[in-house]
Write a structure and sequence with these properties.
The complex is a heterodimer of chains A (333) and B (416). Chain A is an all-alpha fold and 333 residues long. Chain A has 15 helices and two strands. The longest helix of chain A is centred in the last third of the chain and has 27 residues. Chain A is globular. In chain B, α9 crosses α11. Classes of the chains: A mainly alpha (333), B alpha/beta (416). At the A-B interface, α3, α13 and α15 of A face α1, α2, α4 and α5 of B.
Chain lengths: 333, 416
């Protein structure tokens, strides 16, 4: 973007203004970058996955990066969003645009439940409680097989056409699918930006920096934690809805703790505390997996080694480090 | 604001390095776009779990599928067109398999998909292919895929299904009035096998004395064994797959279960028997789609073994490997007869195709596209009876394929 200005010369005022402009319109800039994605990546299916995981990790980042709560159970919200979208379309016969809000609302309710229990604890106990409760959701989905398809996964809700303003759009076409799903992603990105720009966004960052002090300032820390937990769960659930519409199956693995672990890895890779970092993390992680596994069945060695290198040398993640190197951005990110 | 030098020292990244890194990144992304296959090639997508607990079986499947493609290409291809196999690692994960299948269809423009090695994964692949009208030949056991809910005219099932396998095994091992106990892996595969065994034993007139479920991937079976022994059954059916099978049988033998009852498995796995050794498996009976030792009584098996040995340095093909060969082979035969890749024509040919690739005649039943084929029942040999390192099993029975072995079309929900 503004690479030309990283040199020896003192930064140009125009460049600084340009960056400030970009930072002020981060939703728009993110959307332009994401709109180009399908044309840059090796396949459209991969681009959709980057979009989906980007949204999930972005929602997670609200809790982890901005509030400082390390949840290890976000697969529960990702999975619930996906399962309810599928069940609402396949079993209850709802149209997709009704199924999606329903699934998000249900995931938010689940987040309220899990959040009420888990935000009473802190540190490693918080991580463990979220992990345990998410596993509970996994086993419910496994056992209620007449409802969720159990081990075999949820099937039978393929959305092949979508009515948009009277026109029928072929949803099986990968390009159409990407841009339709991007509308959902765009709403999630805008909501996330609004939350962070609001006074509430400042409060959660204050809690991250010093919980005692935030409490002393008169903020109801417990209530804020619960609200941010619910918002985070709801935004991650948007990714789940997108995943269900994209794959037209919901695999049981979506609720597995490995998915939660992958979300944490992606946010660390991209950079917690940065707005666009989650998308960078999801993209790098998924591209590495995709491209390297085409070359060799021992792709895990390569991907693992690269991940270790990133964690050791770029503790702020790829995007966080990039913003650090950029002198203009240091003031505002 | 720190100057350039301090910044360089702090991050250790100069502009030049960053630019080099970025161009390397762009080049990496561009790589898969280069070297696309010429457009008249017939491309077969092959998703399979090259990593994970079923990797050994998956590698055998790939070797056999590659052999099937090579033999066809050596004879000039299908209708004059070369055939290419695109192998993808599905990581034994249904979501990953669906994504890979989408990539194969949308980017690589494959003409058909063969593969997958788990009930959940094949159903995911099937969901993607049937929505897009692409032929899919599944080569892993499942009863669900035959049922009307998951079936489509594009779905073909080359593997045996739990119903056929358990019925054949039960016929050889369970007699009227016997008491039967079950140890079952608690997931789709185990449940389907249990259902098959119970149905077969009811028909025979045997009595079920108990079922114990164990979690998928369990390492410790010691708590189950005393409970199973206290049920005093004549036969113990262990319905699990891969490493679970080897671990469960090993621990059952340690507890002295074999002195008390016969151990029976729905599918006896070549690779697991190799991994554990003859003493543990001695006397265990199970079903199989293929065993290389069939070559002494079957001409097709002898030819298949010969071709595989020539291509793989004298190694022998395994049970799950043979699925890879017959799955790809039958599809290519149908394409040859249809004179190309036109989906409707290939389906019409497949529905009437009589093929004999690994072990005798096979055909796809019209209503559910299940491959009607022979089922082998094998007994693991004791060490002193083995003529060579690969002489693992004795063939107890080879039931020729017949429609009566399958659940009826009506029962599966198909119009009859």
């Amino acid at each position: 973007m503004t690479v030309h200005s990283t040199g020896e010369a003192p930064p140009l005022p125009q460049a600084q203004r340009l960056f400030a402009l970009l930072a002020d319109h981060r939703v728009l800039v993110s959307l332009v970058a994401l709109a180009l994605l399908p044309w840059l990546l090796p396949s459209k299916a991969l681009a959709v996955n980057v979009l989906i995981y980007g949204v999930v990790v972005m929602g997670y980042n609200l809790l982890f990066g901005y509030t400082g709560l390390l949840s290890f159970g976000h697969a529960a919200f990702f999975g619930t969003g996906a399962y309810l979208t599928g069940i609402a379309i396949g079993r209850w016969g709802l149209p997709w645009f009704a199924a999606v809000p329903l699934a998000i609302a249900a995931s938010m309710a689940l987040a309220a439940l899990i959040g009420t229990i888990s935000t009473r604890t802190r540190g490693i106990y918080f991580s463990m409680v979220t992990l345990a409760l998410a596993q509970l959701v996994y086993y419910v989905a496994l056992q209620a097989s007449s409802f969720t398809g159990g081990e075999n996964g949820l099937r039978g809700f393929t959305v092949d056409h979508i009515g948009l303003f009277g026109a029928q759009v072929n949803f099986l076409d990968p390009v159409n699918k990407y841009y339709v799903l991007m509308v959902l992603a765009a709403i999630a990105i805008w909501v996330q930006s609004r939350i962070l720009n609001s006074p509430f966004g400042a409060v959660i960052e204050a809690i991250r920096e010093n919980e005692q002090r935030a409490r002393a300032c008169g903020y109801d820390v417990e209530r804020c934690k619960l609200i941010v937990f619910m918002l985070s769960g709801a935004i991650s659930a948007v990714g789940g809805c997108m995943s269900a519409l994209h794959l037209s199956i919901v695999p049981l693995d979506i609720l597995h703790y490995q998915t939660s672990g992958m979300i944490v890895m992606m946010v660390l890779l991209g950079g917690a505390r940065s707005f666009f970092g989650p998308f960078v993390g999801a993209a790098v992680f998924l591209i590495l997996e995709d491209v390297v596994s085409l070359w060799t069945p021992h792709w895990q060695i390569v991907v693992g080694a690269i991940f270790v290198v990133f964690v050791l040398f770029l503790p702020k993640g790829i995007w966080g480090t990039f913003l650090d190197v950029l002198p203009l951005a240091r003031q505002r990110r | 604001m720190p100057n350039y030098e301090t910044r360089l020292r702090r991050t250790g990244i100069s502009r030049r390095t960053a630019l080099m890194g970025m161009s390397a990144g762009v080049a990496t992304l561009a790589m898969p776009r280069l070297g696309r296959a010429a457009d008249d090639t017939i491309r077969i997508g092959f998703p399979t779990p090259l990593t994970g607990p079923f990797a050994a079986e998956a590698r055998d499947q790939v070797k056999c599928a590659e052999l099937a493609v090579k033999l066809v290409n050596d004879k000039g291809g299908v209708a004059g067109r070369k055939v290419e196999l695109l192998v993808r690692d599905d990581k034994l994960n249904a979501g990953e398999a669906a994504t890979r299948t989408l990539e194969l269809i949308e980017k690589d423009k494959v003409h058909a998909i063969v593969g997958a090695l788990s009930s959940a994964v094949q159903l995911a692949v099937n969901e993607v292919t049937r929505a897009r009208g692409v032929i899919y030949v599944s080569i892993s056991q499942s009863d669900t895929i035959n049922e009307v809910k998951d079936f489509s005219k594009y779905t073909f099932h080359e593997a045996l299904n739990p119903h056929m396998t358990t019925a054949a095994v039960a016929r050889q091992t369970i007699k009227k009035g016997m008491k039967v106990a079950h140890l079952v892996a608690d997931y789709a595969y185990g449940h389907e096998m249990l259902r098959g065994f119970k149905r077969a034993q009811t028909a025979i007139g045997a009595e079920s004395v108990g079922e114990i479920l164990h979690p998928f991937g369990a390492a410790d079976y010691s708590t189950f064994m005393p409970r199973l022994m206290s049920l005093r059954p004549d036969v113990l059916c262990i319905s699990n797959f891969g490493r679970d099978q080897a671990n469960a049988i090993k621990q059952a033998v340690d507890f002295g279960i074999k002195q008390q009852m016969k151990i029976v498995v729905p599918v006896i796995l070549h690779n697991q028997r190799l991994a554990v050794g003859p003493d543990v498996f001695e006397g265990v009976v199970g079903g199989a789609n293929y065993y290389w030792g069939l070559e002494t009584q079957n001409k097709t098996a002898a030819e298949f073994n010969k071709a595989f040995r020539a291509a793989n340095g004298g190694a022998i093909p395994t049970d799950y490997g043979a699925y890879g060969y017959s799955g790809v082979g039958s599809l290519l035969q149908a394409m040859q007869a249809a004179g190309g890749t036109d989906t409707d024509k290939v389906i019409a040919v497949l529905e009437g195709l009589q093929y004999d690739l690994t072990k005798g005649p096979q055909h796809y039943r019209k209503c559910d596209h299940q491959s009607v084929q022979s089922v082998l029942v094998l007994e693991s040999k004791k060490k002193s009876a083995m003529a060579s390192e690969n002489d693992l099993f004795a063939i107890v029975a080879s039931d020729p394929g017949a429609d009566e072995m399958l659940r009826s079309c009506g029962e599966l929900g198909h119009a009859t």
